[in-house]
Design brief:
The complex is a heterodimer of chains A (165) and B (386). With 165 residues, chain A is an all-alpha fold. Chain A is built from seven helices and no strands. In chain A, helix 1 crosses helix 2, helix 1 runs parallel beside helix 3 and helix 6 packs across helix 7. The longest helix of chain A has 27 residues. Chain B folds into three domains: 135 residues, Serine Threonine Protein Phosphatase 5, Tetratricopeptide repeat; 111 residues, Serine Threonine Protein Phosphatase 5, Tetratricopeptide repeat (Alpha Horseshoe), CATH 1.25.40; 102 residues, no CATH class. In chain B, 78% of the residues lie in helices and 0% in strands. Chain B contains 17 helices and no strands. In chain B, helix 4 packs antiparallel against helix 5 and helix 8 runs antiparallel to helix 9. Chain B starts with 6 loop residues before the first helix and ends in a 16-residue tail after the last helix. The model of chain B has no long low-confidence stretch (mean pLDDT 91). Classes of the chains: A mainly alpha (165), B mainly alpha (386). Chains A and B meet through helix 1, helix 2, helix 3, helix 4 and helix 5 of A and helix 1, helix 3, helix 4, helix 5 and helix 6 of B.
Chain lengths: 165, 386
């Protein structure tokens, strides 16, 4: 983070919000969020930004343009939306805890198993794709997936017992 | 966690990540050489931070140039650490950025080793992440640039140029000279592969200027080498040699082993064209040996084929046959395209033929073209009696 970050923030925030609102017709509250997202991104990349002002101004323009594109693709919901349940959310009560539990269970495993399980269950890699990613045979990749699942189950249950006692 | 909406919250996050990076730096330095031991243990909780992943991502480019296999493993490890960070500790934009970056690195490692399908698969995963955040346009543009590089290697030039135009615009607006220069470099490569040599030379010259201004030494050296190859093809050997030497000097300073080998291979080709066979033999042998050590059989084979041509020119047929047989064996062991081994087997049969040198060049050009067109059929040299 540059030593004069606070000064940069104070100097550029109004300009950036002004650009998003004035040039791209973005509502002020959203423009403010966008400007803060750009600053957050700046924190991650500050070490390789050569011209700060050009970067911040260019960034708010790009972020605003993208915001506009996403908005243009979205449609207003029908008035009857409150009456019908979203079919994607019918299993949400089961699904979210399952996903959270899966993340926690995978995090208990070895690094190799985390990678294998992440590829298989979050990125939907097939066994041949996992084999190519790990540079192993397909047979070994299938065995790894199965062993890692067992490891996740075993360790997650053990952790659960540990936290209860 | 939401995006911080005031200066104090932003500074707090920045300071936290900087402190994590400081703690991670010595650990990551050690990890580069001991990563293999880490895969079968659980990731320590103090490593599960954004700063740690950023340090892993930071060392990736130099490791990639020295050892692509280790770089690939590092990128995979960065992904594992990034996905195991508790979601409520950082704003989602930050977590999305580091996960997207890890996928981007995996794609780069695959691309570096010509695994195009795997690179595209990894880019899809990277895309899926960064398209959800307004702020990450530079990441989207970078993913577009890497995808364009893969498309260019697959000869999908129109798709590549389309992506390149979008990425160039983004890098230009934020003043990112380094990646703008990389876009120019790719544009030049595309022109070269389309056999438009003069426009390619012009674009590479512009890329050299931009990358010199950006002080991006690795890319500058690549642009110089690309320029050298065009000069060579245009028959301007002195300019080619000078650009190769400039590239070699930068790569040597950086210690980028595979790139040093590639550049020496280029200088070897010039020596061969100038009839300086002993010099060509030394340069090509060095390059081939590095590729074999780094398990890059395709590149080793290509250097080997140039060595075959050198030995034929030197009248040392027995050495030429021995190298050709080694190359066939290496191609088969690495499960490379069977057509390549068939073409080299044809060359071995041609060794005592007066047109052996021509055949060596013909086979090398064919094997090089197979990288982009794996289905291309091998045709022996046309009969010169016709």
């Amino acid at each position: 983070m540059p030593p004069d970050f606070a000064a940069l923030y104070e100097e550029h925030l109004p300009l950036m919000i002004g650009i998003a609102v004035g040039r791209f017709r973005i509502p002020e509250t959203d423009a403010e969020t966008l400007a803060h997202e750009v600053f957050l991104d700046f924190i991650l990349k500050a070490h390789r930004v050569t011209s700060v002002r050009a970067w911040l101004v260019g960034s708010i323009c790009n972020a605003s343009r993208y915001y506009g594109r996403v908005r243009a693709r979205s449609e207003a919901l029908p008035d009857s939306i409150d009456e019908k349940p979203d079919p994607h959310l019918t299993r949400v009560v089961d699904m979210w805890p399952d996903q959270l539990a899966a993340r926690q269970a995978f995090a208990c495993t070895t690094a190799r198993c985390q990678l294998v399980l992440h590829l298989r269950y979050f990125e939907e890699y097939s066994i041949p794709e996992i084999a190519r990613e790990l540079d192993v045979s397909e047979k070994y990749a299938a065995k790894l997936v199965s062993e890692c699942l067992h490891q996740a189950k075993r360790r997650y249950e053990k952790q659960g017992r540990g936290s209860k006692s | 966690m939401k995006v911080p909406n005031n200066i104090h919250a932003l500074v707090a996050i920045a300071e936290r990540i900087e402190a994590e990076q400081r703690r991670a730096r010595p650990v990551v330095e050690r990890l580069v050489t001991t990563l293999e031991l880490q895969w079968d243990t659980e990731i320590p909780s103090e490593w599960r931070t954004v700063g740690f992943v950023q340090e892993l991502n930071k060392v990736f480019p130099s490791v990639l140039q020295q050892n692509p296999g280790t770089a690939h493993a590092l990128a995979q490890f960065a992904l594992v650490v990034a996905t195991s960070i508790p979601r409520d500790r950082y704003p989602s934009l930050v977590l999305t950025q580091i996960e997207g970056m890890a996928w981007q690195r995996i794609a780069q490692a695959h691309h570096y080793r010509s695994n195009y399908a795997e690179a595209l698969r990894a880019l899809d995963a990277a895309d899926k992440r960064v398209w959800t955040e307004n702020g990450l346009f530079e990441e989207r543009a970078t993913i577009g640039l890497i995808r364009a590089m893969v498309f260019a290697d697959l000869l999908r030039f129109d798709d590549a140029e389309l992506l390149l135009a979008d990425s160039e615009e983004v890098f230009d607006t934020v003043g990112n000279l380094r990646l703008y220069g990389s876009c120019l470099l790719l544009r030049g490569m595309i022109a070269y592969r389309q056999h438009r040599l003069l426009p390619a030379a012009e674009i590479f010259e512009e890329a050299v200027e931009v990358l010199r201004e950006a002080d991006d030494l690795p890319q500058l050296a690549k642009a110089l080498r690309a320029l050298a190859v065009v000069h060579y093809d245009l028959g301007d050997l002195p300019s080619a040699a000078s650009a190769f030497q400039d590239a070699l000097s930068i790569f040597s300073d950086l210690g980028f082993t595979p790139e040093i080998a590639r550049t020496k291979g280029g200088l070897g080709r010039i020596s061969l064209s100038r009839g300086r066979y002993a010099e060509a033999r030394t340069l090509l042998t060095e390059a081939r040996s590095v590729f074999l050590t780094l398990r890059m059989p395709e590149e080793a084979g290509l250097a080997g084929l140039e060595l075959v041509e050198t030995f034929i020119a030197m009248g040392e047929e027995f050495r030429a046959v021995a190298v050709a047989e080694q190359v066939i064996e290496e191609f088969r062991r690495a499960n490379l395209n069977e057509r390549a081994a068939t073409a080299v087997a044809y060359l071995r049969e041609m060794m005592t033929n007066p047109r052996a040198r021509e055949a060596a060049r013909h086979v090398r050009q064919y094997v090089e073209a197979l990288k982009q067109e794996p289905e291309r059929l091998f045709m022996p040299l046309p009969d010169d009696s016709s």
